[in-house]
Predict the structure.
Amino acid sequence: MIKWKKQGVINKGRIAFITSVQGYISNPGGGEYCMTKAALGMAAKLYAHRLCEFDIPVIEISPGIIETDMSLVHKDNINRGFIKRGST
């Protein structure tokens, strides 16, 4: 993107990372997913830091838990986690 901007191929580059709130909490049943999302969140911060001098914005979109076929199998655990955290 830096090269393309300098060459005039693009006017402004943009980078977006889709992460998850799961990158901020521990979930023993989904550790690999949590670790991956946490790593993507750090990558977004690092790229934002490195690319700001070139006016290339980097954003992180970190949605909450969205009810999908994938998340439905974890619904009870997710609800228990929220109830536990809310009661302390």
Remarks:
- The first strand starts at residue 15 and ends at 18.
- Strands lie at 15-18, 58-61.
